[in-house]
C-alpha cells in the first residue's frame, strides 16, 4: 500500500504523503504519527521520534515513549512534544556521607597543623620572639652629656 516502483532506481519507494517505510514487506508505507496518536506500526511513531513506540493501551495502540523515556511538551515557539531520557536520581547513603565528612575533617586538621608549623618557624619559639619596631613612632635620639664629644647617637 502507498508504494510504487521507481523506474530510475528499480526499487520500491513510498509515496510523498506516506513517507514511513514499514518493516512488514506486505504492509508498504504509512503516514507518520505523533505522540498520543493512534497507531498500528511502531515505525510510524519512530519516524517522528526515535524513542517512541506503538504501545497497546486497553483496546487501542497509541504512540508513547519507550521505557526509560518520558514525554516533554514545549509550548513556545510552536507546540512540540518529544521523548526525553529519564534522569536517574543519585541517591546517597550514610557511608558516603560519613566518608566525605571524615575526609574534610582530616584535611582541615592537616591544614591547621601545617599553619601551626609555619607560624613557629616564622616567629621563632615563644620565648625568643623578635621585637619588631613600630614604623609609626620616631626612633629614639640620644645625645651625649660629655661636652667634649660631638657625636650624635641614634638608637
From TrEMBL:
Membrane spanning residue stretches: 97-118
Domain of life: Eukaryota
Keywords: Membrane, Transmembrane, Transmembrane helix
Protein name: EGF-like domain-containing protein
Source organism of the structure: Rhamnusium bicolor
Organism lineage: Eukaryota, Metazoa, Ecdysozoa, Arthropoda, Hexapoda
Amino acid at each position: 500500500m502507498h508504494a510504487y516502483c521507481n523506474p530510475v532506481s528499480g526499487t520500491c519507494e513510498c509515496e510523498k504523503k506516506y513517507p514511513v517505510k514499514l518493516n512488514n514487506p506486505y504492509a508498504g508505507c504509512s503516514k507518520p504519527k505523533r505522540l498520543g496518536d493512534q497507531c498500528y506500526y511502531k515505525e510510524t511513531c519512530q519516524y517522528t521520534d526515535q524513542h517512541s513506540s506503538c504501545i497497546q493501551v486497553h483496546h487501542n495502540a497509541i504512540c508513547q515513549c519507550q521505557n526509560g523515556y518520558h514525554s516533554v511538551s514545549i509550548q513556545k515557539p510552536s507546540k512540540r512534544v518529544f521523548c526525553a531520557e529519564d534522569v536517574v536520581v543519585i541517591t546517597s547513603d550514610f557511608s558516603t556521607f560519613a566518608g566525605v565528612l571524615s575526609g574534610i575533617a582530616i584535611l582541615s586538621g592537616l591544614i591547621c597543623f601545617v599553619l601551626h608549623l609555619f607560624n613557629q618557624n616564622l616567629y621563632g619559639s615563644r620565648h625568643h620572639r623578635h621585637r619588631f619596631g613600630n614604623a609609626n613612632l620616631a626612633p629614639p635620639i640620644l645625645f651625649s652629656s660629655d661636652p667634649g664629644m660631638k657625636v650624635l647617637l641614634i638608637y
